[in-house]
Design a protein that fits this description.
It is built from twelve helices and 15 strands.
């Protein structure tokens, strides 16, 4: 990966991370009530009294922790501690355990739903903060959430989704879309896997390793559809698919996250088994969803949504870089990553002072002005991670 175009991409992405994304999210810090502000609209009006999503604050804590580990800028560790303190003191339920869905602006509980997806992202943040800071308390909290998920948030088939504050099962509106109500989702399974990968990487806990191996098998046997070269997305409680949906962004993200898990687990037989799947997912996304410069969103019952969503574009860069690393003869993957970055650079990054990335743009790169710049799902997790992955995968 040493051609001039790739080197230029790396330099541009490093500059964007250090001069764009990091300063923007430092500016979202709430020093009065803790954590980070929860809403910035399209016109860059900051609502300091908007709800604070716990996913948002977990992801910001994860981001600053990893940025510190990579860049060794002490100010980033201080931001990570600010996020960690908010998670520990406000997002975690002291009475029933687990992490809330959201808080009011002042750190009091707002939506007390306990969602498995949300527990996973807190594990992800705590694991990375432990690596960055060496604070053993963060690792202990991550392990407690792991135990909570394994003892409370699953049945004999797999991970359940949504619960009341005291962990009674409830319907899964929060992670169901496209007109269905899912008992289980690929999305939750993927991010439990992602969180456990980081927890195992920093702790070496054998219980976590066993669960990672189990999740891999669920992906291979229940989620991956070899006939359609894709993952299924929404399921009933027995992992029967309930919607003909191809989520392009999740497939390219899953491909590299599963490969990351294989590297962390270092099991050659498992790696060989899963690489067949991740190669197939990458090849299919390149074939059906990438138009030469950017990635469409999804295909729902045969109808393609061509919106270019911020997180899908970010995952596309990593996914195709990862595909090229595995199959260096496929230079089209490297070119796709470079073209995707150029599209992001020219169209998805909002050039207005005080902004970050647009939520979504059309295939020509025109932004949709009804979507906010920051809200409970819109954070530096996908785009910040893209920057850090590129810096680690491409030699400086």
């Amino acid at each position: 990966m040493k051609n001039a175009e790739t080197k230029k991409m790396r330099e541009e992405i490093k500059k964007h991370l250090t001069e764009g994304i990091i300063p923007f999210w430092k500016g979202m810090r709430d020093d009065e009530f803790g954590g980070y502000y929860g809403f910035l609209d399209y016109d860059l009006n900051l609502d300091k009294k908007a709800e604070k999503g716990c996913i948002l604050n977990s992801r910001i804590t994860w981001f600053f922790s990893n940025a510190y580990t990579l860049l060794k800028d002490e100010s980033l560790l201080e931001e990570a501690k600010h996020g960690y303190d908010f998670l520990k003191d406000h997002c975690l339920d002291k009475e029933y355990g687990g992490i809330y869905w959201s808080l009011n602006y002042d750190g009091t509980p707002k939506d007390t739903t306990k969602h498995t997806y949300n527990q996973a992202f807190c594990i992800y943040a705590l694991s990375s903060y432990y690596e960055a800071s060496g604070d053993a308390e963060a690792l202990e909290l991550a392990k407690k959430l792991f135990t909570l998920i394994e003892t409370t948030c699953m049945d004999e088939v797999g991970y359940l989704e949504a619960f009341t504050r005291d962990f009674k099962p409830e319907s899964n509106e929060k992670l169901s879309e496209n007109g269905v109500l899912a008992d289980k989702t690929m999305n939750t399974l993927l991010h439990v896997f992602e969180a456990y990968t980081e927890l195992y990487r920093v702790s070496g806990d054998e219980k976590v390793r066993r669960r990672l191996l189990w999740i891999m098998n669920v992906f291979a046997e229940k989620v991956y559809n070899p006939k359609l070269h894709r993952q299924e997305v929404f399921f009933d409680k027995h992992y029967n698919t309930i919607l003909n949906l191809h989520s392009y962004g999740h497939d390219i993200e899953t491909a590299w996250l599963i490969d990351r898990g294989c590297k962390v687990l270092d099991d050659p037989e498992l790696t060989q088994k899963m690489y067949v799947i991740t190669k197939d997912l990458t090849a299919q996304i390149y074939k059906v969803a990438f138009d030469g410069h950017s990635l469409a969103n999804e295909c729902d019952r045969g109808v393609v949504n061509v919106h270019r969503v911020w997180w899908v574009q970010a995952e596309t860069v990593i996914g195709f870089l990862n595909g090229y690393e595995k199959e260096p003869e496929k230079k089209e993957y490297l070119e796709a990553a470079e073209k995707e970055w150029a599209f992001i650079r020219d169209h998805v990054i909002d050039k207005r002072p005080g902004s970050e990335w647009f939520w979504e743009v059309d295939p020509e790169g025109n932004p949709y002005p009804d979507r906010p710049i920051v809200e409970p799902w819109k954070c530096p997790y996908h785009n910040g991670r893209m920057c850090m992955e590129v810096l680690q995968r491409i030699p400086g």
